[in-house]
Write a structure and sequence with these properties.
single chain, about 325 residues, alpha/beta, Rossmann fold, 2 domains, 16 helices, 10 strands, binds pyridoxal-5'-phosphate
Length: about 325
């Protein structure tokens, strides 16, 4: 009850009202993604697992929800000069498609190391690609230059109330599709998705548990929770290319207050989960999207007495944009 009061008091950059508004705004454009189940994966995990397949969302990732909400909430004058972002992939493609639907340009700063399939997606949706180096500094500087040149509006990939609200619509659908969910497992990077998901889910059911899944080589959220402040790592090293960003001032307060725990996963566990998604669920999932299943199968989750009562677990399978070589490697390398 206390949490519900805090959530509705406007303490955070998004809330249940902004998420419901986002839901109405984006409904004509986004897909209501299916929820899959598998008796084999239930048996492996000892729980009832429900997979919300955002890998089947338009652009292949949940990012389209937030991007659509941000683009369609701009006034005409704001929108006219276009939108800008720097992103290594899914947000970039999502913003390109949302801008295309609104009939405005999208200028996308992409690090040279971004996966080819993600750069191809941006171009397919008509985004103008500007390459930067792979450092946050180079990405930010390049985006600032493009903003000066074009006068466009910067739309961050996660640290933004409009983005958090759009991503929160996942919970509205998921809890309608599977009302008995007692736990949600959500990948975390900049925290835009988990903060929106947590705000909506805990407003609907204050008792629901929200667990973040994070790769060991980019475990800044776990470190931030332990330290009680945002920790940014000097470098990150993981196969999950979508999970290398850090929390921001909009997402951190929600992660600090409403995320119950962070489950850390090895890259080898992510590869194994990608293989299971492909072989058992019959869906193509990128490393960042498979991490929720990896977390639920991990010893750190299975052996933690705090989570033994998590019986109906909703896993957000967040994206499916993977270079075929990486997918192939996951099939060959995973044991
Ligand atoms: C497929 C996928 N999953 C999860 C995330 C993490 O989302 P957030 O940055 O909102 O925490 C991303 C971010 O790019 C992503 O692309």
């Amino acid at each position: 009850m206390e949490e519900k009061k805090q959530i509705t008091k406007g303490k955070y950059a998004a809330n249940i009202s902004s998420i419901m508004e986002a839901n109405l705004r984006i409904k004509p454009h986004v897909l209501r993604t299916p929820v899959l189940t598998s008796t084999s994966l239930n048996a492996m995990s000892g729980r009832q697992l429900h997979f919300k397949c955002e890998c089947l969302q338009k652009c292949g990732a949940f990012k389209f929800r937030g991007a659509c909400n941000a683009v369609f909430s701009l006034h005409d004058e704001e929108a006219a000069k276009g939108v800008i972002t720097h992103s290594s992939g899914n947000h970039a493609a999502a913003l390109s498609l949302a801008a295309k639907l609104r009939g405005i340009p999208a200028f996308i700063v992409v690090p040279k190391t971004a996966p080819t399939c993600k750069v191809d997606n941006v171009m397919r949706y008509g985004g103008h690609v500007i390459f930067s180096e792979d450092t946050i500094k180079s990405r930010e500087e390049t985006a600032a230059r493009v903003q000066q040149e074009t006068g466009g509006i910067l739309i961050p990939s996660s640290n933004d109330g409009r983005i958090m609200s759009g991503q929160g619509t996942i919970s509205l659908e998921f809890l309608e599709q599977v009302p008995q969910l007692d736990t949600l497992v959500v990948p975390i990077s900049g925290g835009g998705m988990i903060s929106g998901v947590a705000l909506a889910a805990k407003s609907i059911n204050p008792a629901i548990r929200i667990l973040a899944a994070e790769p060991k080589g980019a475990d800044d959220a776990a470190q931030s929770k332990a330290a009680g402040r945002i920790i940014r790592l000097p470098e990150t090293n993981t196969i999950a290319d979508g999970l290398k960003a850090f929390l921001g001032d909009c997402t951190w307060p929600v992660v600090r207050d409403l995320v119950d725990d962070v489950i850390i996963v090895e890259d080898s566990e992510i590869l194994k989960a990608m293989k299971l998604c492909f072989q058992i669920l019959k869906v193509v999932v990128e490393p960042s999207g498979a991490i929720g299943l990896a977390a639920v199968l991990s010893d750190s989750f299975q052996k933690n007495p705090a989570w033994k009562d998590c019986n109906n677990i909703g896993i957000v399978v967040s994206g499916g944009n993977v270079d075929l070589g990486v997918l192939w490697d996951s099939l060959n390398k995973a044991i």
